[in-house]
């Protein structure tokens, strides 16, 4: 039986550990080489998954005023982890971000895995810096995901976040359904994928698509105001403009790993989300 060790006990680390029942979720700090080596020597994993990183609280704007802490966790930490994995022959899967791309791609089909990115915000820069280093190493898979959408309601879930915002932008994006990401992680590990992979569902989603499904399946009485992307910063709702982009995913396909088209995956996810909301309401009234 292959051993999997996950770093980063946050939103995605916990989801992935639940989906990989034999995996161990470590609380070691990845920017501490001693901590990392001790965890690897204790658990002797065949596969390591890096779900650790500074994503900012309450959001990535935190990274603008905490640059060095962001670089330690998002750039230096992954490099320390990669070095320790290389020394021990363990395969490393690193959760990266598609938010390293801003705006339209040179290829109308979307940004490719080997395109040079154009990150603007501190968070995106720190993630891209790690990609640039890790993508030169053998035995490392870099999975770029975007705006993960999950079927469990919660403050880190895009559905919950958008449904609670009174003002929402409507932009077309590549996104990642978490159930599909879990399958991608399992398969990329098994196949010992190497290099950058775009782990986004085929097709694109507008924020309106998500809210339309939410209104249909979760809350018929939900309302919100629509604002432009530029309004996010001018209204003071964000410090830095957010990445909006469309990715193509040829390398994942070439590895024989597929994700469901976004329309199908999003509806399935929203149906499960609605069921979870109804179950929670039933518990509340009983
Ligand atoms: N959620 C998204 O929208 C998204 C999108 C694309 C990519 N990703 C990437 O996916 C990964 C997981 O994201 P997430 O949504 O699960 O974030 P999360 O909920 O913030 O979890 C990240 C976890 O990593 C921990 N961490 C931070 N620095 C660490 C370090 N140096 N050593 C060990 N643990 C550390 C955090 O704890 P403390 O903060 O307490 O240190 C937190 O428990 C991140 O690398 C993120 O960049 C996320």
Task: List the main descriptive attributes of the protein structure presented here.
286 residues; Rossmann fold; six-stranded parallel β-sheet; two-stranded parallel ribbon; EC 1.1.1.133
Could you give the topology of this structure?
Elements: E1 4-7, H1 11-19, E2 24-26, H2 33-43, E3 47-50, H3 61-64, H4 67-88, E4 91-97, H5 122-134, E5 140-145, H6 158-164, E6 167-169, E7 172-173, H7 178-190, E8 195-198, E9 205-206, H8 207-217, E10 225-227, H9 231-234, H10 250-254, H11 262-285
Parallel strand pairs: 1-2, 1-3, 3-4, 4-5, 5-8, 6-10
Antiparallel strand pairs: 7-9
Helix pairs in contact: 2-4, 4-5, 8-11
Bound molecules: NADP nicotinamide-adenine-dinucleotide phosphate.
NADP nicotinamide-adenine-dinucleotide phosphate is lined by residues 7-13, 29-31, 51-55, 73, 77, 95, 97, 127, 145, 147-148, 156.
Architecture overview:
The structure is a single chain. With 286 residues, the protein is α/β, with parallel strands linked by helices. The protein is built from eleven helices and ten strands. It has helices at residues 11-19, 33-43, 61-64, 67-88, 122-134, 158-164, 178-190, 207-217, 231-234, 250-254, 262-285; strands at residues 4-7, 24-26, 47-50, 91-97, 140-145, 167-169, 172-173, 195-198, 205-206, 225-227. The strands form three sheets. The chain has a six-stranded parallel beta sheet with strand order 2-1-3-4-5-8, with helices on both faces. Strands 6-10 form a two-stranded parallel sheet. The chain has a two-stranded antiparallel ribbon with strand order 7-9. The radius of gyration is 19 Å and the shape is globular.
